[in-house]
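Hi L.,

As promised, NAD dependent epimerase/dehydratase family:
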Amino acid sequence: MTNPTYDTSAPVLVTGATGYVAGWLVKRLLEEGFTVHAAVRNPSNTEKLKYLNALADQSPGQLQYFQSDLLTLGSYAEAMQGCTVVFHTASPFTIAVDNPQKDLIEPAQLGTRNVLEQANQTESVKRVVVTSSCAAIYGDSADLEMVPGDLFTEADWNTTSSLTHQPYSYSKTLAEQEAWKIAKTQDRWNLVTINPSLVLGPGINPFATSESFSLIKQLGDGTMKMGVPNYQMGVVDVRDVAEAHLAAGFTPNAQGRHITSGYNTNFPQMAEILRAHFGEAYPFPKSVLPKALIWLVGPLLDSSMTRKIIARNVGVPFGVDNSKSIQKLGLTYRPLATSLTDMFQQLIDYDVVTT
């Protein structure tokens, strides 16, 4: 996409600034010359902040840290002061949790409420960009049977997830619904949401703990060498998600939700792409596991892989429509092979995966 000339006279806020998507967003903002107010849990944790600090050292923009906590009302007041655009990226991405209400729902929903209520009280704010998810659009691939057409669109909402079934997706749905509810109570700032599918690609922090890194690591470290399920999904490069946020923040007529997904793919295809690039040095899976076998043993190997999830997703057709992000935000998506190979190469370079 062609970059517009940005008005960098006012600072912008990025919540959860040490996160996977947030890191690339901060990088782009600094490159464009913005002063970035980075909201983090512990501004004195120099080890965790060293990757962002390195970006700031190489960029024309400025980076300022502010201590904030998703669950503490008013904790974003200082960080938001003077900002015209707020990027709310902070939210947990983890699948296996002991207490979904405490570990997923509360940080996502209450965190969104705290950030957006602060926007209501901060006169300088004109736009809020919330990092939502395709998980707020659908819960399972089987949900496609309930929507018109053969692709999920921004008009669709996830109505099938709950605390006991796909709780992560449920948390993202509740958080985005909370955002739209708050946005409709006022008319000073407008809300734009970015709804990525599974985010892949290298991290600003090569040791990031996002579920995405765990997945790609397992494709190459032997965990899945016996085979993978035909689990279909959307995939998007983290660098493209950052561009989507940038466009959502500063494209004057941007509005509503934006599915941000480069490709509809599946585990077998992803494994094949990695093998084509890296060869046989790593035990990438070569076979597709039968659905009946996954249904039988999946829940025994992974408690988050329930039989309901298997039934409603493995081998079930899936697809999302990304045309709005292309037309309204000007996105061009990197090839799937680029995202996968860049990410796996980073895991090799930092000895996260070894032969």
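The CA atoms of residues 232 and 266 lie 4 Å apart.

Thanks again for sending the construct details.

K.
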